[in-house]
Structure formats: C-alpha cells, structure tokens
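hi!! sorry for the late reply, been swamped w classes. u asked for the two structures so here they r. pasted raw, havent cleaned anything up. first the sequence of the first protein and right below it the tokens
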Amino acid sequence: MPITHIAGASVEGLPLSEAVRAGDFLFVSGMVGFNEAGDAIVDGGIGEETRRIMEDLKAILEEAGGDMSRIIKVCVFLTDANDFDAFNQAYATWFPGAKPARIGVVAGMTINAKVEMDFIAYLGD
C-alpha cells in the first residue's frame, strides 16, 4: 500500500505530517484555528476557530483529490464543555448532508486554542 505525505497547511518545525495518505485513506493530523500567518489562533472564539480549521481541512482534501463529503471520522477536542453548542453550530454548516462519525473530548491543549480536530477521509471509489 503506497503512503503519501500531503503538503497542506504549514507545520514547519514540527515533527509531523499535516496529512498522510495510506491507500484510499487520508489521515489528517490535529488542526487548530491558526490565522493566515500561522503564528496565532484566530480571534472570534470557538465558531471562528472551527470555521478556520474546516477551511484548512477543505484545502488539504482538495490537494489530495477529495472534498468534505469524503470525511468519515472526526475527533474533536474542546477546552471548555460550555463551548459545545457553539462548536456544533459552526461545525454543522460544513456537513449539510451525511455526517461523519465523531467523538468529542474536553481536555487541555498544548496551545492556546479552544478546539482541535483530527480527521480521517476515505478517497477511494
């Protein structure tokens, strides 16, 4: 099975790949809502962070030959359980049809973000 590392958003200096394709599956590393410069979390709270993550994810999927409909599993990490409803509102706009499987966890982060997500996509026929 061929394994391909997808370029995606910058992770310069970190010991990881933004995304790795293994056969028909694409595994996307944990993503937070960095601003355009990639040097800080976007302003605007959980909704804006979620929107930014999903925009970056869409770009990675397109580079790999897929789209948002190919997401099959999402792991969500929130720093505050009180953000769950606002997160769901922002997240739901990206999956108007079939929804991927998902898990949500409330945990601390190593960066000053309110949300981090990782993804699995299926890119086969």
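now the second protein. again sequence first, tokens right under
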Amino acid sequence: MRAVIQRVTAAAVKVDGETIGSCKKGLCILLGVAEGDTEAEADMLLRKILQLRIFRDGNGKMNLSLLDTGGELLIISQFTLLANCRHGNRPDFLLSAKPEEAKRLYLYFIEAARRQVASVGEGSFGADMEVTLSNDGPVTIVLDTDTLKAKG
C-alpha cells in the first residue's frame, strides 16, 4: 500500500460537482492499494499515519499526532500512486491491485480509521473526483508499506 499524507486545514472531494466527503483540520490521505496487499498492510499503514507526530505542539514543534489533536481524516482512493513510469512515457498500473480487491481494502482502511477517529470523510472508489485542499505547512509525506516493513 502506498499513501500520500497531507496535513490540511481543510479538504474536500467532489463527484459531479457535489461534495461527497470532507475534513477540517487533519489529514488528507490519498491511498493506493498494490497487488498482494492485505489487511495487515492496511492496519500497519493506518497505525503509522495516526501516530505520525506531524502536528504542532504549544511550542510550534511538530510533536503531536492526529490522535493527540483530535483531527479529522479525508481518505481518497488513488490507484495512480502505483504508476510504473520506468519504460516510456505512458505509465502502466500493473502494480495496482485488481479493482475488486482494491475497493475491499480501501473500504477496510476507512472502517478501521472510523474505529479510531471521530470524523472520517471518504471519496468514491473508481469515480472521477475533484479534490481541493489547503495544505498546512506545507506538510506532505509519502509512505509505502514495503518500505515500512523493510528492516534496516
């Protein structure tokens, strides 16, 4: 699994001009599911995201997690995070999980997040979405479960 995490003051996702998900101060997560990913990767990634100390404390230092601040989440499926651009100029997406499995794990990730975070917005799997956000910092972090699992 691969995720782009952006610390935001606000974020929203629209489909056909209608807002279907949003969050206030918190994190906007773009989530890509790779072939072979399981609930274990989803759990590991969510745990890491929720514990990242990327919010400012009283001294202005990045020392607090989303859970510490009571922040919100907006989670959006984005298979293009698994793009392979090694050959030519047209990316392939062969590393992405098949749509049925990707959707299952995307929904699993959202439900797991809802067990720990009071406000979780979501995109629409497979839809053409318009995402707007106000990146706070800016703080943008990329996480990949293959890297998180690696020893070293």
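hope this helps!! also noticed smth abt the second:
The mean pLDDT is 95.
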